[in-house]
Amino acid sequence: MDLFLPTWLIHCGVFPATVASLAVARKWVRKEEMTSVLQYFRKVYKEEFVRSNIIGWILMAIGLILFVNYRAMIELGNQIPIFVVFAYYLVLFFYSLVLVWIFPLITHYHTTIKQYFKNAFIIGMSKLPFSVAIFAVIFLICYVSLELPSMFVFITFGLTAITMMFFVMQVFNKIDEHSYR
């Protein structure tokens, strides 16, 4: 018997683990009590397993299409009109906004998959300064962690989750406050 987990198990666990990590970070940012971090992580992991995998694989498929388009643009070089290149980068920007906001949305709100995509896009565009701040923080953490490989192993994912949720919760608190009025 192979000692390694089947690859499908690893691939199907990345997205729920991301959501569960963000949910734990959300609790920490909000200073809410947890009896056990591991128990809460497992609970969220199980609850959001299907939904986060569906959303994650949709995002992966879109990302693959964008990557294939990028490779095609490189191969075609100067044959592509400049407006197509600008359109591609605009779509890539929109994709990045959705990618950054959708998983935190899963941890805070319960709605349909279609609504998560719609809300991630709307919040990402309407709260652009927060989106840029999140991009900058993620870039900075990744840059520093690549310079310090030991940081990458031990700190990068948790630090990214906490800082993301710090910015995201400021937006969500304003949205929640506005919706209750």
Account of the 3D structure:
The protein has helices at 7-11, 14-29, 37-47, 49-76, 82-108, 113-126, 128-147, 149-154, 156-179. The protein is mostly helical. It starts with 6 loop residues before the first helix and ends with a helix.
Pick out its properties.
single chain, about 180 residues, mainly alpha
Largest sheet: none
H and E string:
HHHHHHHHH
First-residue to last-residue Cα separation = 59 Å
Question: Can you give the helix content as a percent range?
Answer: over 70%
β-strand number:
0
Radius of gyration: 18 Å
Average pLDDT figure = 89
Q: Look at the helices and sheets and give the structural class.
A: mainly alpha
Strand content: under 5%
What's the arrangement of secondary structure elements?
Elements: H1 7-11, H2 14-29, H3 37-47, H4 49-76, H5 82-108, H6 113-126, H7 128-147, H8 149-154, H9 156-179
Helix pairs in contact: 2-3, 2-4, 2-5, 2-9, 4-5, 5-6, 7-9
Write a compact overview of the structure shown.
The chain has 181 residues and is mostly helical. The protein has helices spanning 7-11, 14-29, 37-47, 49-76, 82-108, 113-126, 128-147, 149-154, 156-179.
